[in-house]
Write a structure and sequence with these properties.
transmembrane helix; 314 residues; mainly alpha; transmembrane; single chain; 13 helices
């Protein structure tokens, strides 16, 4: 996969922005595709086969380029048994727990609500970073966290029904599982990274999901409509492998701080697409909560970017 040009030119900046928009759009569409498919397919086999196909597709992309293939082989040789255990742990958290819990949640809450809750992940990462990574928080970061927590409270807007509260809590547990996976990845210096790590963790995580589906008796339906199969292909290829590929491509061209500031667009795309496709809407409190969460993420990433450039904070 060819890296984006360096950040020095206007053309590179536009290309990087377009790549980030494409990645977050595809991520947002995955919630809509998942919501449609949950009408016909149980959550565990749906997510398991989704990420198994995405892992195979990602591996095929890596194998198509000699440089990427050689790097992947070298990184594979450097993996110890301890490294494999960590990769398995990341796969269990990042794919099995995050996506299993998320799709379980989407059985009772909207796609937009699920996206808002999942993408509170950076808020939890920042909140736990002082303890887990020994990273100090600035006053601006503390203010951003406070806004984020208020946004989370407002985003859980279904206080009238126990069924929806369960979905909200599962969505938050999904975000916290993603947080744990992120902190482990940051703490442990694995010899594999990027798309190579992502392919392995998806493969391991999907295998665990399919195992759990078998144990719990959640089976793939005997027949699906052509429309459902098209949704599934979209979910597994563009919305999963495609979004991750574009994301890692953007990281090479624009850096983690700038790329991460685009993440809040994923829930926005989800809300727009789910309204257009599924007729879903958010309540006023959920919409305000989503806006506050987006503002919190923007403030945290702006702070992080300024600290990297050693600029004074306001």
């Amino acid at each position: 996969m060819k890296p984006l040009p360096a950040n020095g030119s206007q053309q590179a900046s536009w290309l990087s922005t377009a790549t980030l928009l494409g990645a977050t759009f595809f991520m947002g569409s995955s919630f809509v595709a998942g919501k449609v498919l949950l009408r016909a397919v149980p959550p565990l086999p749906l997510v398991g086969w989704r990420f198994l196909l995405a892992a195979i597709f990602t591996g095929a992309l890596l194998a198509m380029r000699p440089a990427q293939r050689a790097q992947a082989r070298q990184e594979f040789r450097e993996l110890s048994w301890r490294d494999w255990a960590v990769v398995a742990m990341i796969g269990g958290l990042q794919t099995t727990a995050v996506m299993g819990l998320l799709f379980w949640a989407m059985q009772s809450i909207s796609a937009g609500q699920a996206a808002i809750l999942l993408f509170t992940n950076p808020i939890w990462v920042a909140a736990l970073a002082p303890l887990a990574l020994k990273e100090a928080l600035s006053r601006r970061s503390i203010l951003a966290l406070a806004l984020g927590f208020v946004g989370v409270i407002l985003a859980i807007g279904s206080l009238g029904g126990q069924h929806h509260i369960t979905g909200d809590l599962l969505g938050l547990l999904s975000a916290l599982s993603w947080t744990l996976a992120t902190l482990i990845t940051k703490r442990v210096n694995l010899p594999i990274r990027g798309l190579h790590l992502n392919a392995w963790q998806m493969l391991i995580g999907s295998a665990l999901l399919l195992f759990l589906a078998t144990i719990l008796g959640q089976n793939w339906p005997a027949s699906l409509s052509l429309n459902d199969w098209l949704w599934f292909v979209w979910l597994a290829i563009p919305a999963s492998a495609g979004s991750f590929g574009l994301w890692f491509l953007a990281l090479q061209g624009s850096g983690a701080a700038r790329a991460s500031s685009f993440l809040f667009l994923t829930p926005l795309f989800t809300v727009i697409l789910s309204h257009w496709t599924l007729g879903e809407t958010l309540s006023a409190s959920q919409a305000v909560g989503g806006i506050l969460i987006g503002l919190s993420l923007y403030m945290m990433h702006a702070t992080s970017s300024r600290l990297r450039r050693k600029e004074p904070l306001p």
